Amino acid sequence: MIPYGRQDISDEDVAAVVAVLRSDFLTQGPAVPAFEAAVADWCGAAHAVAVNSATSALHVACMALELGPGDVLWTVPNTFVASANCALYCGAAVDFVDIDPQTYTMNVSALREKLEKASVKGRLPKVIVPVHLCGQSADMAAIGALARAYGVKVIEDASHAIGATYQGHPVGDCRHSDICVFSFHPVKIITTAEGGLATTQDPLLARKMQLARSHGITRDPAEMDQLPDGGWYYQQISLGYNYRMTEMQAALGLNQMTRLGAFVARRRALAARYDRLLSNLDLVRPAQSMDADSSWHLYVIRVPADKHLHVFDTMRAGGVAVNLHYIPVHLQPYYRAMGFGPGQFPQAEAYYGEAISIPVYFGLTEAEQDKVVEVLAGALA
Ligand SMILES: *Cc1c(COP(=O)(O)O)cnc(C)c1O
Q1: Ligand 1 midpoint to CA 261 (Å)
Q2: What pairs with residue 6 in β-bridges?
Q3: Peptide bond into 166 cis (omega under 30)
Q4: Confidence label for 40 from pLDDT (cuts 50, 70 and 90)
Q5: What residues have CB less than 8 Å from 44, skipping those under 6 apart?
Q6: Domains delineated in the chain
Q7: Which atom of ligand 1 approaches the CA of 297 most closely?
Q8: For residue range 78-99, what is the model confidence (pLDDT) as tens digits?
Q9: What residue spans of the chain are helical by DSSP H?
Q10: How confident is the model over 161-195, as pLDDT tens digits?
Q11: Given the CA of residue 55, which atom of ligand 1 is nearest to it?
């Protein structure tokens, strides 16, 4: 089977992890800060906080922005459930903004209208979470401007988008947001097996996320309400979790960062090749905004709704492990039980009825890509 996504692990990656295993620190050593510095440097962010998943990064980001009971977080429906669940962890409520039918990212006019109405009702969200689906940045300049106008905070879910740019600047520099979150799950652009990271330009938000990652415990006397009793002393000053990344994960991530440019370049070349090879088929290729240069985590095609299931099943039977990103979150039973249901977000629902993610990853060969196209063409015929 040709998978839809797959990690690329080099001998150097393996050596980096093995070196950590033989070192003094398996956790809380030098590799995590080195990895954080590498990502912050790539993104042009002042701060980076590594954690054990993007789900945890979204949670600590919401905590740092003091999302809580009585608050609301808005995200898009066509995302992984974690983009919405982070609000529920904080006791806040979730609502959704439909997507743009071309780029599949948060629809700016839908957001504007919804903010206007919410403002009149005195029910503005505290946080909005645009998702850079497939690696293509949402229209962050417009979203950031609206957020500022209404006093709303922004967390970018850039789980797909490390290595992407927006208006010529790296995703993760938080130019139009408060916090930006990346995932390092094996199918994503770089991997640490499990892992995630949040960038920010704000030192206070960074510190709050560090505390949330590790029990709310500080060893900094300046943050304590008394002088330390002795060298052993620490204080818990807020409620946190154990969301720490291990040294093995960070060493893997640090070495993967040296190939981020190559990973994204290869994905862009494969996407451009798909664009050519698929141009005569009865499907919609992924539209790209002039402002965004995608990292191409996913290459999503849309096929006629009446052929969707057939194409999906035929491709899987033909050795191509296609996938679908995503089932709209508001249609999940857990969310339906809160009152959400079909018909509320028609663009995300129409997308769900037609979308298929076809293979794109660093190690995909042109011969394999040709096979994907051949199987797809056969399924559509
Ligand atoms: C993968 C993903 C997440 C969660 O990432 P984990 O690192 O697996 O927790 C969140 N949001 C989106 C859009 C994702 O694709």
Answers
A1: 21
A2: none
A3: no
A4: very high
A5: 169, 170, 172, 173
A6: 2-257 (3.40.640.10), 260-380 (3.90.1150.10)
A7: 15
A8: 999 999 999 999 999 999 999 9
A9: 11-21, 31-43, 54-64, 82-89, 108-121, 140-150, 203-213, 247-257, 260-277, 308-317, 333-336, 346-352, 366-380
A10: 999 999 999 999 999 999 999 999 999 999 999 99
A11: 9
